[in-house]
Every structure is written in structure tokens, then in C-alpha cells.
Write a structure and sequence with these properties.
The chain is mostly helical. The chain contains twelve helices and no strands. Helix 4 runs parallel beside helix 10.
Length: 244
């Protein structure tokens, strides 16, 4: 099989006819396009992060944590890009957004199945979010599948047990002996810290644009986002720092 199929174009390879026709503003207002593109881009990055987390889970389960570092580092870099993108959305003023907000109806980022799946696959498993997706829906199927499989935290902790380290505190106290596990733990912290930074920037951006208004999907808006700031995928790795 040739590595360069005859007639393959850039547009063909990337499916640009489909990708670039997926932006369908519901109003004639200029700023709605930005809102759509930002959120579609985030969903693409979430897809890539899920791809990387799945790869890392497989490698760590096979006792190849060092090989999994690249995938985990890539997740952190993607998170940085996603966090910066809030600055682009913040160019949308309250007046701009208010002109087309009604066309969103009851749709909301709160309903992103990929974001909930990412939380589940990292180890943040709030079963209440299953209620937002009807049984038989793609979102419900994805979250149910994620719950049925080991999370990134579970496979990392299982790797620690197999290696013979009695706790993550022990790993940190003798990082030379358990260097692979120590490095793995720090990669997990990178992801968790970046996720927290993303949440904080999200909250500030929403507050800047809609203030204290309720979210379009019925959430409490900024108040809900503020309540998520203390969520941690790997709380044990944060807690042990006090004991070092």
C-alpha cells in the first residue's frame, strides 16, 4: 500500500468539507460564529485528550509508565491551549452575547458528554451526571462505558501496588527508588492542576460575559462553576504534600 495515495488532497485527508460545514449559526449576528467555533474546537481537543488518556491507561496497565509520560504530557499541553482559548471567547462582550443568547435554547456546555467522560476516565466519578443523558443516548453509553473501565487513577494506583510501594507517600519519600512512579504521579498532578486552571478561567470568562445569570441549560452559571474549583482527580497526591 502506498504511503501517498494518488489524488489525496489536504482537504480530502482532513475531511474539510464536513468540518467546515459544521458551523451553522442560528442568527445573522457576527459574533455567534466565534461562539460556535470556540466550543467545537474544545470538543475536538477533548476527543484528543480522551485518545491520549486511553493510550496512557493501556501503557500504565502494562507496567510501561515511562512510555505513558508522552501521552500524559500531551494532555497537559492541550489543556494549556484550551485554557488560553477562554481569552478569545472573552472578546465577546455581554452586549454581543446577549444579542444571540436566546438561539442557544436549552443547550449548554454543561451537557458536554466528552467533558464528563474525561472526568470519569481521570477518576472524578460523579454518578449524578448520568442523569443528564437519556438511557440509550450516545452520551449515556459513553459515560457508562467509562464507569465500567479502570480510570487513570485506578491503573496508576494498581501500578504502585504491583511495584511494591506501600503508599504514594512512600514513593515521594524515596523518589530515587520509585522514580518511575514518582514521575508518573507528577504527570498526574500536572493534569489535575491544569484542569483546575481551566475551570477557574472558565468561571471568570462566564462571569465576565453573563455575570450571575443562570446558565442556558438550567445550571446555576457562575455559582455552579465556582463550586467545581475544588474538584481533584487525584486528591491523594495533593494530600500527601502536607506530610512530606
Amino acid at each position: 500500500m502506498t504511503a501517498h495515495p494518488a489524488g489525496m488532497t489536504y482537504a480530502d485527508y482532513l475531511g474539510l468539507d464536513i468540518l467546515l460545514s459544521a458551523q451553522r449559526p442560528r442568527s445573522a449576528l457576527h459574533d455567534e460564529m466565534l461562539f460556535i467555533v470556540i466550543h467545537q474546537t474544545k470538543e475536538l481537543w477533548l476527543k484528543q485528550m480522551l485518545h491520549e488518556v486511553g493510550h496512557a491507561v493501556g501503557l500504565i496497565s502494562a507496567d510501561q509508565p515511562a512510555e505513558g509520560y508522552k501521552a500524559l504530557a500531551r494532555v497537559s499541553r492541550i489543556q494549556s491551549v484550551m485554557t488560553l482559548s477562554w481569552d478569545v471567547l472573552a472578546t465577546l462582550t455581554p452586549v454581543d452575547y446577549g444579542k444571540f443568547r436566546d438561539v442557544l435554547g436549552t443547550s449548554s456546555g454543561f451537557q458536554s458528554a466528552q467533558f464528563r467522560e474525561l472526568e470519569y476516565r481521570l477518576g472524578i466519578r460523579d454518578l449524578a451526571f448520568l442523569e443528564y443523558y437519556e438511557g440509550g443516548s450516545e452520551g449515556h453509553r459513553r459515560l457508562t462505558a467509562a464507569l465500567a473501565e479502570p480510570s487513570l487513577w485506578e491503573v496508576a494506583d494498581a501500578a504502585r501496588v504491583r511495584a511494591g510501594a506501600d503508599s504514594w507517600l512512600s514513593v515521594y519519600r524515596d523518589s530515587g527508588r520509585w522514580f518511575d512512579l514518582y514521575q508518573l504521579a507528577e504527570k498526574l498532578i500536572d493534569i489535575d492542576a491544569a484542569l483546575s486552571g481551566w475551570r477557574h478561567k472558565h468561571m471568570l470568562t462566564v462571569e465576565r460575559i453573563i455575570g450571575g445569570k443562570m446558565g442556558t441549560g438550567g445550571s446555576a452559571g457562575v455559582k455552579y462553576l465556582e463550586s467545581t474549583l475544588t474538584k481533584r482527580a487525584f486528591p491523594e497526591l495533593w494530600a500527601l504534600r502536607t506530610q512530606l
